[in-house]
Amino acid sequence: MIAWLAANLPAIMFAALVIFLLSGVPVAFGLAACGLTFAFFGIELGLLPPALIQALPLRLFGIMSNETLLAIPFFTFMGLLLQKSGLAEDLLETVGQVFGPLRGGVALAVVLVGALLAATTGIVAASVISMGLISLPVMLRYGYNPKLATGVIAAAGSLAQVVPPSLVLIVMADQLGRSVGDMYVAALVPAGMLIGLQVLLVAGLAIFVPRWLPALPPDARAARESNGASGVASLGVLFLVAVLLGRVATGYYPLWLVTMGRTAPPPPDELLIVGLGAGVAGAFILSVADRLLRLNLLSMLTHRVAFVMVPPLFLIFLVLGTIFLGLATPTEGGALGAIGALVLALARGRINHRQIGQTLLSTTKLSCFVLFILIGSTVFSLTFQGVGGQAWVEHLFDKLPGGQTGFLIFVTCLIFVLGFFLDFFEIAFILLPMLAPIADKLGIDLIWFGVLVGINLQTSFLTPPFGFALFYLRSVALTRTTIDEVTGREIAPVRTSDIYLGVMPFVAIQILVMALIIAYPDLLMHDDSASKQMDLNAIENRLEQMEDAGVAENDPMKMLLEQMGQDEEQR
Q1: Range of the domain at 25
Q2: Which helix (H) or strand (E) holds 482?
Q3: Same-domain check for residues 146 and 245
Q4: How far is it, in rounded angstroms, from Cα 153 to Cα 136?
């Protein structure tokens, strides 16, 4: 019996973890309890040296001193602050007025605003709840199909999982030991594909099933000129100016870099940020000049779009721009975003010291939640690896057919199914440390793998019965029949089945994007050789520091770094 236990302890430990998770025990405590319990069994069975447990405090202090994880409270604070300052409300109302005259215009506005909120807040709950409170009543009021209305809100709100700056991508990068900035750059094209396919789905339904997505009636379009015109036409002038200035900036940017002594051509992400920054700045300056000089070139709606769109785009440039241009690390970019959000919230006059205190408290709670799960997973993984768990996991996967492709398809399906029941933090902290070494041995780029898993984890927010985006939307959707105050029509309650069925086309979009990423890996803007060279440089710099400090040649850490450097060169 003892021999059987010793041979199968990793499998028993994993099964015990599943039981802990299904029993309703808080994940962080379940992970830690499972790890410590089986550490005792491992020591008694002679599988685990007692000295290994002494490494646990060092690992915990390593978590506390991890600067990458500091980005989580910064981005959380930024997102919660923007939610309280009314940014989402202004964006939805303004963009809804722009696209309202079109069939499906409000749904299209939800997708676009969801993308902007994702790039500024990075928090699914804030996006889904804000759009559910503001846009869902409007869509139901004017005859939108309830399934489509709820589906598009849940899907657009969950974009915060994969559009940088995403908390999921920060966790992915930390667990995979890769750069957050590289993860952000690699996620740009898949995020753009998700947004584009959602727009195409809404546009297609507006063409083929127009009764599901009616246009707003004229009396619902509040932002109109004094002569009754919509004012949409002058938006073209603003857009044209932004595009031209962005194009000019991207054309001159490489020449400017040459004058600064840089000969390598700028990567696409730098050009994108430079063009976005120049275009937004030019459009805003044109709008301000038109208003101050009373040129009357632009309509009231155009001015409203310019002034409402600038704050989120400014924050995108402040956070992602400084990261992609190499001016700040992701943690520093998060700090800049938090300061920028605080300044914008105070400038709008919609926030007070009490709300700031509530935001800080909510940020602390969420950050502690993530940190405790990470500590619990560290305790679990230390014991799991000590009793031979990694070899057991590798043995499970070595019989899979198809090599890299077979592994990716199996892992994608596994995470997709687990997303029905587990939160993305739980999957990231428990499953990734087991899968990453296998992916690395198969020659899979871990940045690419992390983005694929991140998109898969985003799907967990949409899949019934436990998708968190569905819960958030259910909490703010109508639960009983009401009489609309504007139209006087009776509006039926939103059923849970409407929400579940409504997200299915958007889940299909997620699956399609994952399939395209597996089939065409070059879609991601990521150069594996560059990240490898970065890792080698980091190892060499650390070895030089140890040489300068007079560390002995037989020092275990030094020998480990030398071995890591040799492994990177071979790969």
Answers
A1: 1-53+352-387
A2: strand 482-483
A3: no
A4: 8
CA distance 489 to 483: 6
Closest CA to 312 of 110, 72, 122, 152: 122
Q: Are 39 and 54 in contact (CB under 8 A)?
A: no
The dihedrals phi and psi of 221, each to the nearest 5 degrees, come to: -95, 95
Residue whose C-alpha is closest to residue 161's, from 129, 131, 128: 128
Distance between CA atoms of residues 554 and 556, nearest Å: 6
Q: Find tokens 């937004």 and name the residue.
A: 280
Note the pLDDT tens digit of each residue in 362-410: 888 888 888 888 888 888 888 887 777 777 777 777 777 777 788 888 8
State the alpha helices, DSSP H only, in 67-179: 71-84, 87-99, 105-120, 124-141, 146-157, 167-176
Cα dihedral across residues 418, 421, 427, 430: positive or negative:
negative
Which residue, among 275, 329, 359, has the nearest Cα to 165 in the 3D structure? 329
Compute the C-alpha angle 267/116/196, nearest 5°.
Answer: 70
- What are the pLDDT digits (tens) for 230-261? 667 778 888 888 889 988 888 888 878 777 77
Which of the listed residues 387, 406, 435 is the one where a domain comes to its end? 387
In a domain, 393, yes or no: no
Determine contact, residues 457/113, Cβ cutoff 8 Å. Answer: no
Residue pair 62/379 in contact (Cβ under 8 Å)? The answer is: no
> From CA 285, how far away is CA 282, in angstroms rounded?
5
Number of domains, the chain: 4
- 222 located within any domain: yes
In the chain, % of residues over pLDDT 90: 4
pLDDT in tens, 326-375: 788 888 888 888 888 888 888 877 788 888 888 889 888 888 888 888 88
Residue 146 lies in a domain: yes
- Please state whether beta strands 490-491 and 482-483 pair in parallel, antiparallel, or not at all (unpaired): antiparallel
